């Protein structure tokens, strides 16, 4: 079954890292992929998202028509910064794999959620 591993954090902390700190963290992240990729537990390499300032939010306006605004839909300190798809037997296995992710500046929490399938 597939699980989405959502990486939450303060993207402003991430952008404040020095080049050396960012490189060190990326080395740790690449190491995580090197550990789990050969096991078949990573269903998709995932996607790192641009900072929240680059986002657009679309929601229904008062008249039911779409309204587009800049930025995320709420003023939050933590936002989703990346999504990685895992292939695991159950959510407990997915959580164990997620627990090995190198949490650091700009990454304060992980959420593992089953991917909806419809027949």
Automatic annotation (TrEMBL):
Stretches assigned to the YCII-related domain: 1-116
Coiled-coil stretches noted in the UniProt entry, renumbered to this chain: none
Family: Belongs to the YciI family.
Listed name of the protein: YCII-related domain-containing protein
């Amino acid at each position: 079954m597939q699980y989405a591993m959502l990486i939450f954090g303060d993207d402003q902390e991430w952008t404040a890292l020095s080049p050396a700190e960012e490189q060190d963290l990326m080395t740790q992240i690449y190491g995580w992929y090197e550990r789990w990729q050969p096991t078949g537990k990573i269903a998709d390499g995932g996607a790192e998202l641009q900072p929240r300032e680059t986002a657009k939010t679309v929601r229904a306006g008062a008249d039911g028509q779409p309204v587009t605004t800049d930025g995320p839909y709420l003023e939050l300190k933590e936002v989703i910064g990346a999504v990685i798809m895992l292939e695991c037997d159950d959510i407990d296995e997915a959580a164990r794999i997620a627990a090995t992710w190198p949490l650091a500046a700009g990454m304060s929490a992980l959420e593992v959620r089953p991917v909806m399938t419809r027949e």
